[in-house]
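Morning!

As promised:
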Amino acid sequence: MSGSAVGTDSPAAAAETAAATRTVTQKDQWMVESQVFHTYQHYSSLPSKAQFVLLELQRDKHIEFLTKGLRQLGPSFSVLDANRPWLCYWIIHSIALLGDSVDDELEQSAIDFLDRCQDPEGGYGGGPGQASCFSILYLPHLATTYAAVNTLITLGGYRSLSSVNRWSVLMTLKQFIIFSMHHGGEIDVRACYTAISVASALSILDDELVQNVGNYILSCQTYEGGIAGEPGSEAHGGYTFCGFATMLLINEANRLDLARLIDWVVFRQGVEGGFQGRTNKLVVFVFVRVRVYVIVRIQHSLQCNRRKIDQGGVSALMQRLHISLDEHFVVSAAGEGDCSTESTESSVRSDLSEGEQSVEGTSFIVDETRHNREEGHQTDLDRVEGGFRDKPGKSRDHYHTCYCLSGLSVAQYSYSEDADSPPLPCAVLGPYSNLLEPIHPLYNVVLERYYEAYEFFSRR
Amino acid sequence: MNSHGDHKMPLSQRPEWSDVTPVPQEDGPNPVLPISLTDDFRETMDYFRAVYLADERSPRALGLTAEAIALNAANYTVWQFRRLILESLEADLHEELDFVDVVASSNSKNYQIWHHRRWAAEKLGAEATSRELEFTKKVFSADAKHYHAWSHRQWVLQALGGWEDELAYCQQLLEVDIFNNSAWNQRYFVITRSPLLGGLETMRDSEVSYTAEAIISKPENESPWRYLRGLFKNDMQSLVNDPQVLSLCLTVLKAENVSHVFALSMLLDLLCHGLQPSEELKNAIRALTSEAGPPGSDLARTVCSVLERVDPMRINYWKWRKSTLPSQVV
């Protein structure tokens, strides 16, 4: 961001002018860059043994932080009082990613709690008895339904899965989506994603629900290539994930302009190694998962669409697929059906496939737990607090912990050709013990739990 | 509404509430995620539950929702019920927007607030137009990229109107910060959807000139490059044939100490869509490579190679682009 305008006399003069006329965007960017580079510099100045230690994921501390939250939250959490299913999901999913589980007592309490949030008319509210007494589902209700269902799937087991009143959920989902599409109501790309993700995860996805969703998401792909929350809004990382994942779930990803989409996505990675949510905005941790996932998925998308990924071919997601995106381009350029079927085993299975960018992307995340320590944020200097945060200078929370770990997991498994074999050590930054559980990227639940839920629900 | 540390009288001690029995939250015997709520919070929500379950749509219930919102502006059930009360009481929605202004001042990223504004503005119709446009402007003066505010502003323009000064406003924002992608996005929105302008194709030439200027001043700025591409959405042939675009790329390529990434990327797209490169272009690209010798016929491949070098963060992307070049490309 410190280039000079075309036609200026000397680099020095240009730099001076640039500094004097720096915009807000440039100033913010410069600040984050310097903070991050400070971290990287510190890291590179350490002997390699210390570096290795620095990169170790502080599992115990994270689990401690997470479990503590489940048992008790302080008064500052009152702003999340209407969003407890989300807290449930962020915490329980994070624990599952770390390969751990909550004890039986907590598990039963969680299932019971979510059941109290369940609306007899369908769906889940933000707290016990908070579900709408009125029949129309509201947007935030949709989001808490997503969080609750994902939590129950993550907990797994008969009691957890059977507690979901699936058909009521389907009815209210339909009411919401169909009503909103028709009346131009309270709909956005995230609403589409939460509804479709829930319906799909519960094996209740049907044509009526899906009808106009593809058209809507298509109308949200912007001139930049990314996807916005509503038609006309700015292309945004979170909505791009939601939109793209939904299109995959309903088997319409082909309808998007995939070339522009991937071009936008790859340019979201910044010099710091992390990813921006929007063009010319700052990098944030949460978008690592989005980016890595979207990049990897685009390459599989055409193939997946033809194979109808939702039906019996979940493992196809993890299979190594030929780049059929090639076909797409050759065909569109040549304008003929006769496309080259020479499967180019592309070296690009993701922007991060060669390890370097993956290292930078993931080290950016892992470093922050240590960065916390270096800055002396915690009172007890011997302990690292646990948890993750947005970027240097921000404080940790459950939301960022959840999505950072999810992003790490996706990055670790992005090279994997086979669902059953674990990633090679080179895929994992730091000690191999940093390896997390793999997730199903479309739903963001631990893969094993997704399989269990799929078996459970598809039989009923 | 009390705030800033003023001690509210507990509801249980207010005579006007003496007929109401508060309803506690049914957390169950062993709740997870129990939040240590303050007494004030707990009591307010207990009384709220009482009026909500009784469906009492009275002025005192309205006041109570305001108190609940002050404690937790993210409780959608409270906002939803407030809307029902406002409708039943046929309340003045201009005053309601005043109320939202105050709540928004400490909660601007809260989805509920924006949704509530939209609801109130929709009911008010054209009366709310200038107020809502002013309100979003105020938000942008503190955060020019505020996502909710931009969505709201776009909704206002489309539902209620007010397009007259919008292009000028975008211009203003871009003068202050040429990197503001939200402003570029809004510009695109205006160009393509304003009923007062001629539509994308009519506006295209002047927009290309405007964008070219922005690019020349900061070639490393991704926003105008994407905007430029967007001006030719679904019409690649016009992009390829537009002399301004090619000339712009050449100018940037020949400059020193500037980023060439976006210019090269644009050229790659042009070549992939049939651009016949001039000698000048071939020379400009060759000047960026370390290759000597006779000009290779595969200029697009060369561009990809240069990009691999000047944009190493995306080396794999450029390799993939190279491997997927259409066969007829020069």
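Chain A touches chain B through 93 residues (CB under 8 Å).

Hope this helps with the figure draft.
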